[in-house]
Amino acid sequence: MVRLPGRTGTRPNRRAGDRRLEHAPGPARRARERAEEARSVTGRAGLRAALSGRSVAGQVFMLQVAIVLLLVLGAVVALVLQVRHDSTQEARNRSLAVAETFANAPGTRAALSTPDPTAVLQPRAEDARKAAHVDFIVVMNTDGIRYTHPKPDRIGKKFVGTIQPALNGGTVVEEVNGTIGRLVQAVVPVKAPDGKVVGLVSAGITTHNVGGLADRQLPVVLGAAAAGLALATAGTALVSRRLLRQTHGLGPGEMTRMYEHHDAVLHSVREGVIIVGDEGELLLANDEAHRLLDLPGDAERRRVSELGLDPVTEELLASGRIATDEVHLVGDRLLAINQRPTDLDGGPSGSVATLRDSTELRALSGRAELARERLSLLYDAGVGVGTTLDVTRTAQELTKVAVPRFADFVTVDLYDAVLAGEDPEPGAALRRVAAGGIAQDAPLYPVGHQIRFVSTSPQAHSLKTRRPVLEPRLEAATGWLAQDLERTGQIVAYGIHSLITVPVRAGTLVLGLVNFYRSEKAEPFDAEELALAEELVARAAVSIDNARRYTREHGMAVTLQRSLLPRSLPEQSALDIAYRYLPAQSGVGGDWFDVLPLSGARVALVVGDVVGHGLHAAATMGRLRTAVHNFSALDLPPDELLGLLDELVGRIDQDESAESAGAPVTGATCLYAIYDPVSRRCAVARAGHPPPAVIAPDGTVTFAEVPAGPPLGLGGLPFETVELDLAEGSRLVMYTDGLVEDRGRDIDTGLEELRGALAAAGGSPEETCRAVLDARMPFRPGDDIALLVARTRALPADAIAEWEVPADPAAVSEVRAAVTRRLARWGLEELTFTTELVLSELVTNALRYGGEPIRVRMLRDRTLICEVYDSGNTSPHLRYAATTDEGGRGLFLVAQLAERWGTRYTPTGKVIWAEQPLP
């Protein structure tokens, strides 16, 4: 009988036996007392043995003592090292602080210029030394001659230490071995108002004067060690006493033998053994019982009613009644069950049951199990193959399902055209895209290898007839052996002996082949397995063909989308720009960005996102990008440009709804910014788009407070422009919502993660893009990601010239003269004639048709830019003047001489500008 530890429940007859023992005659009672006394003596002896190290508890105690001693030793060493480091660091900080304070103290610099600096500085240095608790404060001239020292006999002598960095305007902190011991000294310069070094100040302190921490903390560490040893001793004693009580004085050897016999009997018998407690919980089940009843791995300590048994068997095991050779159908097995209570003769309450498999039709059951496994394989193939629209991944999933349940090795070979999403070309070579097996060293063609099967091979025959082919014995298949004599010989020698090759068919197309190899089983593949392989590949072929079609459509959409995005950035001098674009994992979206040079050396940055995915969203994105190009040519402010885009998106939605050709766009978002390198100001407006981030030159990251505005296409509300002052070297970060928002997190969390990535990024736009995307791993987002990072530049002051022009026609000649001087200063004398002519015409038009004030500005950038500002709002128009007209030829000349010209409006007037290429 097996006694289970921890069982407290008893049956009535056990309690009756206890009562009979209580009223037993005197000899029985005396025998029990002698047993108790023996156990007590044994307990005391066991406790001494435990602490002596011969028992498990004693060994644990010795291990605890060793651990405590190691921890104490480590703590003492760490304490000493930390105190030494802290003392040195404190000495460095204090000596540097005292030296800098005394060097910058009022009167120090003035005292150095007196006839007798020692008389003034020696008392001050001694007072400061005593107040700061340092060992010395030495003031010296630039040659290192001391003016002060705690020992007067050393005044006038040369200072011992490094002073050259201090003479260059820096500071020196060094550790030296002096006459008073190991010390740290600092040397700082005393500077005149013009920055010249007129003297030096040195302060020093010995490291032992800032120590002492170890003396205070060492008793605490030793006391903690003593307490730990005491606790370990007490704990070991308590554990030993408890173990002795619970094991009834049995030694470790006796308990080990009892457990080994118990375990060997339970797990070696070919009958199931189950012990059930009096409350219906399963206390123990051996391996055979697990197999016969198909019990879960965590069946122990669960109630019998929770194990999923049939009701009749469950009722028998839970009732605890006596049963002899009762036959029960459990699954596909007929089990003979014998059950007896365990509380006879004073044992613990519960019942024990033995199970014996009495099934006579094992062969028939085996065939049924095989059929069930094959159906399960086909079901798993339907569920596990084709989880993604990726051709290679689908082929890999097929190999995982088939190995090792159906074959020992499986390879999938497809035409290269299938991998590209195209229709296969019969007769072309195949490429191995997936392989799986029970081992990795099989001599089969590796993944990626291009294969052209010879005409006699079963693979070529299968491709030609579009039917599966079975080769039961590969060593005798001459057609297969002719494929590659060396490799096929290695395959046979490896142990692979049987093959099924099945074409991957999708309608009238053959996409490739699947090869199933067997090596472990001695029996070759049979006709039933050939049919199973054909069905398995037929189910996978549907998924492979779907993935092929998706690859083709996705490639077309991505090609369209990328063709609509900028292929290169335009040349400009206002910004250093880097960008990234990542398409979505499935489908294409409408994310886009652009960089547009404007007049006056300004640059427009735009990032947008069309709602939705697919070709329709990509086409709409292209229309919006073209519209932004056209609207930006009008030099509109950001809010006005977004207003025009809002109307355009609304019309697109109306057209789509009217035609019913597809779902309407239902809006888009956009962020538009214009940066001026002359004023270093950036005008920004957004329509339902995430705010831009600004990284200051010092690395501080902020999100610009730009009013969101409604998404494009909703209409009804105006947009608002905000101007940002950007220091030179600032980085403006513009992005789409795919970077900061997805199904697993909201936008606030994404913005905080983006802030952290930007704060840790390098200084260049390229490094910023890399840091942001590295933090956004993996690179297969659920939505498109567009990222644009621009680092600002400022146009140098000497590249800008401005003049106020009086409302007098005679002022035109003065402007020409000033322009001539400025061009000569810039080395652009070749442009003098054309520039004078252009500005003469533009200034004359402003005087005649505009209003005051009138200003002229020239900018030297990649081109020479001439701008004339006036308060009028009438824009000139280019026309051909008749032979009898007195005017109308000025702008025609400007258009002929300038590379570009145009007009932009400001809140107070207009600017007519013209650009000329630099020679």
UniProtKB/TrEMBL annotation:
Domain GAF: 390-554
Gene Ontology annotations for the cellular component aspect, listed alphabetically: plasma membrane
Membrane topology of the entry: Multi-pass membrane protein
InterPro entries in the cross-refs: Bact_Sigma-Reg, GAF, GAF-like_dom_sf, HATPase_C_sf, HATPase_dom, PPM-type-like_dom_sf, PPM-type_phosphatase-like_dom, sCache_3
Chain coiled-coil ranges: none
Domain PPM-type phosphatase: 572-792
Keyword terms: Cell membrane, Hydrolase, Kinase, Membrane, Transferase, Transmembrane, Transmembrane helix
Transmembrane residue ranges: 61-83, 218-239
Region of interest: Disordered: 1-39
Subcellular localization, as worded in the UniProt entry: Cell membrane
Single GO molecular function: kinase activity
Superkingdom classification of source: Bacteria
Pfam families: GAF, HATPase_c_2, sCache_3_2, SpoIIE
Protein name: Histidine kinase
Organism: Streptomyces naganishii JCM 4654
